[in-house]
Write a structure and sequence with these properties.
This protein is an alpha/beta fold. The protein is built from 16 helices and 16 strands. It has 3 domains: about 140 residues, Rossmann fold, CATH 3.40.50; about 60 residues, no CATH class; about 200 residues, Nucleotidyltransferase, domain 5 (2-Layer Sandwich), CATH 3.30.420. This is Putative terminase.
């Protein structure tokens, strides 16, 4: 519909420039051939006689009324009156620099009074596309009409598509019934048997891709497994099985902390309680450019507020590294922490995780332990900053920790991408390679804050 709308406008309005931006050159050519050139070639002859082509390129149609439409993978300079960004979610996920260029160049080139369409399947809960969708959804919830500089959200879920049904009966699992109950409650609708049978059959084929390709709500679309992400499918499974919910602190059970220590970067900390054969992940903390005393004070405050008693404080193997400024290891510094103004002591007793020699070893350890984890969704998802577009870390870090992408070869590499998600993922890895079920046996692993 979007590209036919654009073609119609450039045919019947003079002096219009329209651009369609795809995430890959092959897709740009396909869009042009199928959605621009083919519809034009099949117009009535009377229209084509009045609007003959002035170009014979495979990426542009120009007309005598001084209007034209082109497809590309990047923006041309100049003013644009109609702009369609195709699969922008994929661009944000795989080509973040290109996404930034599109936002700063393409969107800025749009003339006042013009129209912009952005469409995509969801690719994780980060990036411009996710932020734009969440902002537009917020407008809907506030029942406020968007201004000329804001986007309106159009979402087309599977429940509203009358073609997504089958008369052939398909057995439904308990998980299927739970999902349909949630959808009906959320949307205030009643699904019929044919819709349920279609969904169940389709999900057995698409599996973890189902929420991405056939979501019922915008939130569900962004919960879908992310291509190239290490733990996305595991977190999706945790959501579907109800293990991302409200997980309160249990009095009398020690709270363990698991760290990724950033020296010039962020430091991330997970807080867990071991309850039988379950790991209750009750909170998360992350900050940037803060000293060790800051984190000790945060832990002290959280313990007092929540009535916690700490067990292990487990740091990565580089906790044993000597710092040039002090000559002490992080482990040694933790034992002597005190406020220089008040003199109050905040001793932080670290034990150290086993060193791993291969990155894949840590990744597999996380995958092995995730099925035992229950997450408190509210307290393990925090925002860094005060605006709606600031990074949300913790649980989103696990969802978005991904392989590095080679743009030239268009393939994922075997090494992780170091970005904002790395800190939370590496701290969780500390837990995965060190955690043992059962009671703590040594009192000297407790941190006593005086």
């Amino acid at each position: 519909f979007i590209d036919l709308y654009i073609l119609d406008d450039v045919l019947f309005y003079s002096n219009l420039e329209a651009g369609i931006i795809a995430h890959k050159e092959a897709d740009a050519i396909k869009i042009f051939r199928r959605k621009i050139k083919y519809p034009y070639d099949n117009l009535p002859e009377i229209i084509k006689r009045d609007r003959p082509l002035l170009t014979k390129r495979n990426d542009e149609l120009a007309f005598p009324n001084n209007s034209y439409v082109y497809v590309s993978t990047s923006m041309r300079s100049g003013t644009v009156n109609r702009l369609h960004l195709s699969e922008f979610g994929k661009v944000c996920a795989k080509y973040p620099e290109k996404a930034k260029e599109i936002v700063s160049g393409s969107l800025e080139a749009v003339h006042p009074g013009s129209i912009v369409w952005i469409e995509s399947t969801a690719e994780g809960r980060e990036g411009y596309f996710y932020n734009y969708c969440m902002d537009a959804q917020k407008l809907e919830r506030e029942k406020r009409n968007p201004t000329k500089l804001e986007f309106k959200l159009f979402f087309f879920g599977w429940t509203g598509d009358q073609n997504k049904r089958t008369s052939e009966q398909v057995p439904l699992t308990s998980a299927d019934h739970q999902y349909f109950d949630r959808v009906e409650k959320t949307l205030g609708i009643q699904l019929d048997d044919e819709q349920k049978w279609w969904y169940a059959a389709k999900k057995r084929i698409q599996r973890e891709e189902m929420k991405k390709e056939n979501p019922a709500t915008p939130e569900e679309a962004f919960e879908a497994a992310i291509e190239g992400a290490y733990y996305s499918s595991d977190i999706l499974e945790a959501r579907e099985s109800g293990r991302i919910t409200k997980v309160p602190h249990i009095e009398g059970i020690l709270v363990d902390t698991w760290w990724d220590l950033g020296y010039d970067d962020s430091t991330a900390i997970w807080f867990t309680q071991t309850v039988g054969r379950e790991i209750h992940v009750i909170s998360y903390y992350e900050a940037h450019n803060e000293g060790l005393l800051h984190y000790a004070k945060v832990l002290d405050s959280m313990a007092k507020e929540g009535g916690w008693i700490y067990g292990y404080h487990k740091g990565p193997h580089d906790t044993l590294r000597h710092e040039l400024g002090t000559g002490k290891t992080i482990q040694e510094q933790g034992q002597d922490l005190k406020d220089p103004v008040t003199g109050k002591k905040y001793p932080l007793i670290f034990s150290v995780a086993e060193r791993i020699t291969e990155q894949q070893e840590g990744i597999e350890a996380v995958r092995s332990i995730l099925p035992y984890c229950w997450f408190d969704e509210e307290n393990t998802t925090i925002s860094l900053g005060k605006t709606s577009h600031e990074k949300r870390v913790g649980l989103p870090s696990l969802e978005n920790y991904r392989k590095e992408y080679d743009e030239k070869r268009e393939t994922f590499l075997s090494r992780p991408l170091h970005n904002w998600a790395s800190h939370g993922a590496k701290a969780f890895e500390t837990m995965a390679i060190s955690h043992q079920f059962g009671c703590h046996e040594s009192d000297d692993l407790r941190a006593a804050f005086g």
